[in-house]
Specification:
391 residues; mainly alpha; two-stranded antiparallel ribbon; 69% helix; globular
């Protein structure tokens, strides 16, 4: 039985989804005047992690796809029929479908030549919606949201850091980060977190002069006479860079777990035990790279909600609001970036240490297992600061 607050949240979610999709489909093609790019890349992609960090797994009640599935099940059962999945989800698939979904979204954002194109976003949104709804129908709402719906998996991971969580139908307080205690044995979990972390890392590296020079050399021979080929080549190189960054992050983590295992002669892999320590790092990488964008670009939602289609409307009297692009000073941005990176890596190390103390009876083994994790955290921290300094 859905509570009134959740029903209201889902109704607003569905309405927002319809407006954004309609704007992407038939609104102006100017990405600055169409609400779809700002809503998807700023309000949704950057705002939901912050909201999840503060309030817990709110995406469960705000997901338009989950809301549509809930509405379908409610209507189906009112007809006297039983709503049940069409198939059993193969356990070996784990969270790999979710990882592919997040990889596809970040590839659109970071490798495509015009990721803010409203029409491209309309196609991507429609395709993702089809897959999300089909997955829920085929395997059930809970199963697909925990395995295949990439955004639901990502926001649920971040929500495990939050001081609030739902239990037995009530909102309860808990110690921050305590939701990350325990192991993660679901197949594909390590790959999923690596995609989340590596994609942000590539976003930072793609802004460096070295990468921009590489892109310029790749497209230079074709940019004048064969611009389509140049665009395709640039997209391909960026995609390879994105995948390379993910593989690098994944390899570093697996290597650290292998070293930790050898140092304590553990009979089992330590990868499932320590993978959740990467969740705070993935979050703070996003904060460090996108904090200023969220604060500054988010202000443009005020005029956009009054004219979502770019037709010259002023529905709520905010069409002429002028955002304050100087709201953040360079020093403020730098302090937030450095502070969040350091805090996130300390949090990740704390999660790994807590898990080591839990699984190893010998405290010396617990300590030795953390040497490699400490080196990994230092490596991630230095890499993150280097990317920020070069961006």
């Amino acid at each position: 039985m859905l509570g009134p607050l959740r029903i209201l949240a889902q109704a607003v979610s569905i309405l927002s989804f319809v407006v954004v999709l309609a704007a992407a489909l038939v609104g102006t093609t100017d990405s600055y005047e169409n609400i779809a790019p700002t809503f998807i890349y700023v309000v949704f992609w950057l705002g939901m992690p912050f909201l999840s960090l503060l309030l817990g797994n709110v995406w469960r009640g705000l997901s338009p796809w989950r809301a549509l599935a809930d509405l379908f099940v409610w209507a189906w059962e009112r007809l006297g029929r039983e709503a049940r999945p069409l198939a059993v989800y193969p356990e070996r698939f784990g969270r790999y479908p979710g990882a592919i979904a997040i990889l596809a979204f970040t590839a659109l954002e970071l490798t495509y030549s015009n990721p803010a194109s409203p029409r491209a976003l309309a196609f991507a949104t429609a395709l993702y919606s089809y897959v999300a709804l089909f997955g829920m129908v085929a395997f059930g709402r809970e199963t697909w949201c925990q395995r295949g719906e990439g955004f639901a998996v990502l926001f649920a991971y971040i929500a495990r850091i939050a001081p609030l969580h739902a239990r037995d139908g009530r909102i309860r307080l808990r110690v921050p980060l305590s939701g990350l205690a325990g192991s993660e044995h679901v197949p594909g979990s390590v790959v999923f977190v690596a995609v989340a972390l590596g994609s942000v890392g590539f976003d930072g590296f793609s802004r460096t002069i070295s990468w921009q020079n590489l892109i310029a050399r790749v497209e230079a021979p074709y940019i004048l006479n064969r611009p389509g080929t140049a665009e395709l080549l640039v997209t391909g190189v960026n995609l390879l860079g994105l995948i390379g960054a993910i593989v690098l992050v994944l390899s570093a983590f697996l290597a650290a777990c292998w070293v930790a295992r050898r140092m304590v002669n553990s009979p089992r892999s330590l990868t499932p035990e320590f993978v959740l320590s990467l969740v705070p790092i993935a979050l703070v990488y996003a904060v460090a790279h996108y904090f200023s964008l969220f604060v500054i670009q988010g202000q443009y939602m005020a005029p956009l909600i009054s004219d979502p289609f770019g037709k010259g409307w002023d529905l709520f009297g905010t069409a002429n609001v002028i955002p304050n692009i100087a709201v953040l000073t360079p020093n403020t941005i730098w302090y937030v970036q450095v502070g969040s990176l350091v805090a996130g890596h300390v949090a990740g190390l704390a999660v790994a240490h807590d898990r080591a103390v839990t699984i190893f009876d010998d405290r010396q083994d617990a300590l030795r297992s953390q040497y490699a994790m400490l080196a990994l955290m230092v490596l991630y921290t230095v890499g993150g600061l280097w990317l920020l300094s070069r961006g």
